[in-house]
Amino acid sequence: MKTILTLLSFIVFSMQLNAQFTLSLKGKDPKSGQTLELKEISSKEGFGQALILKGGELKSVGLNEIKKIDYEINNLKDFWQNQAVKNEVYENLLKYGFQYDLRRDWEEEALKYLNELEQNNLTFEDSYLENYLYSLTYKLYPGSINDGRPGILNVKLMIDNAPNAFIFPSGTMILTTGLLSTINSEEELIAIMAHEVSHFVLDHSTININKAIQRQKNAEFWAAFVTGLAAATELYASSRNEYYVPGALTYSTAILSFNLASAFTERLGLKYSRDQEIAADKCAVELLKYLKIDPTALSSALAKIKDYCIVTGNYYALTGNGSHPNISERISLIGKPNLFTSSTYDKLISFVNTTNAINEFNNKHFIACQNLVNRNINAGVPTEDDYVLKAMTNLYLYDNLEKNLESLELINKAKNLNVAPTINIHKQEALVLIRLNKNTEALIALKTYSDKLDQALNDIESIKNENSWFLAKQYLEDEKTWTSKMTYKVKTM
C-alpha cells in the first residue's frame, strides 16, 4: 500500500519538510493508494497532535499514530526525517519550541571552544584529510532536513590521543586524532560519524540542556576553561621533552581528555544517557544498512576504543560514567564485529598517525608509538619523523646489536628522504652511533646537531609570541648544553 506524506506545521513551531515520502502503512487503513498529507503538528492539552488530510477531509490524530507508518526510504532526507519522527524529536520541539535564542548561545560557545583550540595549536590542519572527512559527512547527511532547526554539519580534528568524538547542538563535529588512529578503516570512521550525526538529528544535546537544573554562568565557566587550557599548555611545554621542537608543541592526553573535553561536553549537553547512546547506535546501524555498509563497523570501532581505554588505564570511559557509557553493552547490542583493516585508510591518515606517535612517545608509550609508525611504514608513506621515532623507541625498548643496527638504518633512511628534515635526526644518529661504539662518527653527528641548534636559535627571533619564544629559546639552549657535555663524554670514552 503506497501513500504520500507531506509535513507542514505552524502552531507551536514552524517547519516544512520539502521531501515527500513514499509509505507502506501497517494495517488496512487507509486503503491502498490513498494519499495522506500531514498538515500540522501542534500540542493540545499537553499531547502532541497531528492534523492529516485523508480522502479530502482533515482529521486530528495523535503523534503516536504517525509512528506506526513504515517508511520506504528513497534518499537521505527521507531517512533522517523518518528517524526524527520515530525518536520523538517533534514532541520535544512541541514542548520547548525551537529555542533559537538558546541555540544561538550554544553556537557562540562552540565557536569559543574552537577558537581556544586553534589559539593553543590543538587543531590538526590537513587540507587533504579535511576534504576527505567532508565527503564522508555528505554521504551521511544531506545538509539539512528542513524542519526548522538550524545547524549545518562541519568537521574539526582535535589533537588528542584519546579516541573520542562529539557533535555540538549547532552541528560542528569534533573528531580526535586519537580516534582516527585507533580505528583501521573508512567503514569504522563512517560508523562513528553516523553515531554522532544521529545525536545531532535526534537533538539529544538540546534535550539534555533543557533537563539541566542549572548551568554555570558563562563568564565563570570560560574563565575557568581558559585558565585550565593555559595550565595544560604550560605544564606540558615546561617539561621540554627531548622530541619537542619549537613551534610544534604536543600535549598530555590525560590533561586534555579530563580537564578540557569533559568539562565542555557536559556543559553543552553532550554527556549522553544510556538510552540516548543506544538510540544513536540503533539509528547509525540503520543508516549503515541503508548505505550498504556492514553495520558491525560500529561495534568494531567501539571494541578498538575499549581496547585503547584498557591499555591506557582510562577506566572512566569503561565504567558507564563518561560521555560514551557502557561500551561492552553497546557492542553486544550491535553485534560481534567483523575484521576491518585497510592500508588505503592508513595512507589517508598517515600525518595523523605521526602526530599521535609523537604524543605517545612523549607520554612514554613506546610500543604504542612504534605501532603507529609501523602503520605508516607498512602503508609506504613514512616521513623522517616516522623513521626517527622508530629508531628512538628501539633504543628505549631494546639493547642488542640487531636493533641498534636497525636503528642506524632507519636514521639513514630519514637522512636520505629529504621530505621534512628535522634537526632531531642528528641527535638520534649520535645516540645510535654511541650505542654501536662508533664514537668518531658520533662526534661528527653531535657537531652537526650543535650547528643546527645554533641556526634554530637564530631563527626563533621571528616568533612573535613572547611565551612561545621563551620556551623555544630555553629548549634550544638546554639542548646546546647537553650536546656540549655529550661531546666531552664521547671524547673520553
Furnish the topology, listing elements before pairings:
Layout: E1 2-9, E2 15-25, E3 36-44, E4 47-54, E5 57-62, H1 63-66, E6 69-72, H2 76-86, H3 89-96, H4 100-119, H5 127-140, E7 154-158, E8 165-167, E9 172-176, H6 177-182, H7 186-201, H8 204-211, H9 218-239, H10 253-267, H11 274-290, H12 296-312, H13 327-334, H14 343-348, H15 350-362, H16 366-378, H17 384-397, H18 401-417, H19 424-435, H20 439-459, H21 466-492
Parallel strand pairs: 7-9
Antiparallel strand pairs: 1-2, 2-6, 3-4, 4-5, 8-9
Helix pairs in contact: 7-11, 7-12, 9-10, 12-13, 15-16, 15-17, 16-17, 17-18, 17-19, 18-19, 19-20, 20-21
Query: How many domain units?
Result: 3
| Contiguous helical run count | 21
Shape: elongated
By secondary-structure content and strand pairing, the structural class works out as mainly alpha
Strand order of the largest sheet: 1-2-6
**Which range does the strand content fall in?**
5-15%
Distance between the termini: 89 Å
- Along the chain, the helix and strand elements come as EEEEEHEHHHHEEEHHHHHHHHHHHHHHHH
**Mind telling me the C-alpha Rg?**
27 Å
**Helix proportion range:** 55-70%
Largest sheet: 3 strands, antiparallel
Q: Give the tally of β-strands.
A: 9
pLDDT below 50 for ≥5 consecutive residues: which ranges? 1-35, 234-242, 244-260
Q: What is the arithmetic mean of pLDDT?
A: 78
Describe the 3D structure.
By secondary structure, the chain is mainly α. It has 3 domains: 2-72, no CATH class; 100-334, no CATH class; 364-492, Serine Threonine Protein Phosphatase 5, Tetratricopeptide repeat. The protein is built from 21 helices and 9 strands. The strands form 3 sheets. A 3-stranded antiparallel beta sheet has the order 1-2-6. Strands 3-4-5 form a 3-stranded antiparallel beta sheet. A 3-stranded mixed beta sheet has the order 7-9-8. Strand 1 and strand 2 form a beta hairpin. Helix 15 (350-362) runs parallel beside helix 17 and helix 16 (366-378) packs antiparallel against helix 17. The longest helix is centred in the last third of the chain and has 27 residues, at 466-492. The model is unreliable at 1-35, 234-242 and 244-260 (pLDDT under 50).
